[in-house]
Amino acid sequence: MQGGLEWDFEALNRRPVEAEYEALVREYLQDVTAAKSEHKGWKLPETTLSLPWITRLFPEAYYIYLVRDPRDSILGGHTTDDLTKFGVQYPETEDTLKRRAISWKYQYDLVAATAKPRHWMTLRFEDFVLHQERELERLEAFLGFPLGRIIVRPDAVGRWQRTEERVPDFDFLHAALQESGYDEG
User: Fold this and answer.
1) Residue 132's domain is classified under what CATH number?
2) Burial code of 147-168, b = ≥16 C-beta within 10 A, e = fewer?
3) Is residue 4 part of a domain?
4) Cross-strand bridge partners of residue 131
C-alpha cells in the first residue's frame, strides 16, 4: 500500500507465482480444468484479487472483465467487501458502503495494473442488461461460439438512484466512474 487508497501493484506482475498458491488454484479448479466440455470457465469475484497470477497460470484462457457501476455494486454484500480478509491494507472504516466502495476501487485498480492476457474483453454489466443482444454478439465474436440468451432484469441497473438508502458520493471513485463511462450522476 502506498497510503490512503493507492496501492503499489508493480511487484504483482513480476513476482513469481508461489507453488503453494498454484497448487491451491489448480485443486480448486480441478473440476473445471478436467471437464471434457469444449467450452468451460468460472466466475468468482475473488478471481479479480488473484488476477496477476491467474493470467500467468492460464495465459491462453479468455478473460471477460465484467465491470459494474460501483454505486450499484456496493448496495449488496460480497465476499470481497472486507479486503483485510485477503491481506489488503486500507484505511479502517465502520461505514459498510465505504468499505465496499474501497474494495471496488482496489479491484478496479488491480485490474488496471495487471498485464492483460492475449484474450481480454471488458464488458459493462449495464450494457449487457440493457443491450443484451448487441453485447452477446460482441461476446460471441470474442469467444468464437454462440451463446444462449438469458432473462435479464433492467431494474438491476441504476438501483443506487432509486434506493431509500442514500449512496454517498465517494470522491475516490470519480476517476474510475469517468474511465468506465458512468455518468457521475
Assistant:
1) 3.40.50.300
2) eeeeeeeeeebbbbeeeeeebe
3) no
4) none
